[in-house]
Design a protein that fits this description.
about 450 residues, four-stranded antiparallel beta sheet, 12 strands, alpha/beta, 18 helices, single chain, about 45% helix, eight-stranded mixed beta sheet
């Protein structure tokens, strides 16, 4: 006689159900980040959830798309679910919350049939011994989300108030004003374009790849093909790099045969820029795994660098460099367009810890810069403590350095990308971000500093 399914003996998951494993990986990754391990990055959570799953490339891409969509509109999704749950959101049950969030994200934001999203979420609920008795609830709520889709989307009118963590909304409004903060939040809903940095022949590659050359010097692509399948990738004609991320090296303007240090270099887009300019670059990072990726990219691009696995704080200062680039570890709040989990997995407390590390790295970078040399400090953060305030404190400590103000012609004529101090400050809402026209930039800060003497 067959046993009756119960919480201790759930029905097994049929491995042959299309898309079920992808949903399980996505839900488990989202649950991890909604729970005590929220400090992880989504990439790490997906890798952890996918161990032992043997996902096909298409299913792996689906899992990532579901998880990313879940965080991109997490505030809106939580609000829609809370309104329809009698007892509110199950904050103390991250796996249940993740099943509801990932199911709602598929229904509202992805090209997934409602019945598939609901059915597979219910199957996953039934397979969890702690949740199987809640399968009827999951079924009812997700079906209601599908029926009320239009009303839910019509109510999504304030991404700053509803779809942005309160601490970030408050900070951005204080730093940039309420209107700009709303523009930043709107740009985050659109995701990021695919920008590439070209070795040469920009007009020819723009035509070949069907992209648009930006005034900033990058090529913005409109297609959704796999990057590795695009013309020129295998030949090393270009590499993926957000247009804002490419600006710090362009502002540094490395020259042939200059000795340049790229501190915290992985994954290597800026190292590639420096090497392509003909400089002798030393790429330093403490992560051997991330440097392996950097070396693979350099090999594909047929570029060379002296790659050093080390903590930048421990580098020898015996022979200083002509130029030093410090892309410092930061809160990464400028990358929420492409990494929406950052908004929900970072906290205000992280910033204070990172500011201290940035200060130590900047002081080290100063000692590594030869007299007459340039030091470019940058972060992919929107937080003023990690940019404007950090440089002001540095200049007060190091009187042998001065700021070299950036001019509009260095950034394609876009004077709005330069702050009142003459530093670079890009925002997600710049270049039509939030307009629905495929614009936007990562949020980047960069300051060009020169050491006296030489």
């Amino acid at each position: 006689m067959a046993s009756t399914p119960n919480r201790r003996n759930p029905p097994p998951i049929d491995p042959n159900v299309p898309g079920l494993a992808a949903r399980r990986v996505a839900a488990n990754a989202v649950a991890t980040l909604l729970g005590p391990s929220r400090g992880l990055a989504l990439d790490d959570a997906l890798a952890q959830a996918g161990r032992g799953e043997s996902l096909e490339p298409g299913d792996a891409a689906l899992a990532r798309a579901i998880a990313t969509a879940s965080f991109r509109r997490l505030g809106f999704l939580r609000a829609a679910l809370a309104e329809r749950l009698r007892d509110g959101l199950p904050e103390d049950r991250p796996h249940l919350l993740a099943l509801l969030v990932t199911g709602a994200a598929q229904i509202l934001d992805l090209a997934v049939a409602d019945h598939a999203a609901v059915d597979l979420a219910v199957r996953l609920t039934k397979a969890d011994p702690q949740l199987q008795h809640l399968a009827p609830l999951v079924n009812a709520i997700l079906r209601r989300i599908g029926r009320e889709r239009d009303a839910i989307r019509a109510a999504e009118t304030d991404p700053l108030a509803v779809n942005t963590p309160e601490w970030l909304a408050r900070r951005w409004a204080a730093a940039y004003g309420e209107e700009t903060a709303r523009g930043i939040a709107a740009a985050h809903l659109e995701g990021a374009a695919l920008d590439v940095t070209l070795r040469d022949a920009p007009e020819a590659w723009a035509e070949r790849l069907g992209g648009r050359l930006l005034d900033l010097g990058s090529l913005r692509l409109s297609g959704r093909e796999a990057v590795a399948d695009l013309s020129g990738y295998a030949d090393g004609a270009w590499w993926v790099q957000d247009a804002a991320a490419a600006l710090p090296v362009r502002l540094m303007a490395p020259r042939p045969d200059e000795r340049v240090a790229d501190l915290c270099a992985a994954p290597g887009g800026k190292t590639a820029q420096i090497a392509a300019a003909g400089a002798r670059v030393t790429a330093v990072d403490r992560s051997a795994a991330r440097l392996e990726r950097l070396q693979r990219n350099l090999a594909r691009l047929n570029l060379t660098a002296d790659v050093v696995t080390a903590d930048a704080l421990n580098l020898s200062e015996e022979t200083p460099f002509d130029a030093v680039l410090l892309d410092a570890p930061c809160s990464a709040t400028g990358t929420i367009r492409r990494h929406p989990d950052v908004a929900w997995t970072k906290s205000e407390a992280d910033i204070g810890r990172l500011v201290g590390l940035q200060r130590r790295l900047l002081d080290k970078a100063a000692r590594l810069t030869a007299p007459g040399g340039r030091l470019v400090y940058c972060t992919c953060s929107l937080e003023v403590e990690e940019g404007r305030d950090q440089v002001a404190a540095f200049l007060a400590r190091h009187t042998t350095f001065e700021r070299v103000p950036i001019t509009a012609d260095q950034v394609g004529g876009h004077a709005e990308l330069i702050d009142g101090n003459g530093d670079l400050r890009t925002l997600p809402c710049h270049l039509d971000g939030g307009s629905g026209r495929g614009g936007g930039l990562d949020g980047f800060f960069a300051s060009v500093l020169r050491r006296s003497g030489g």
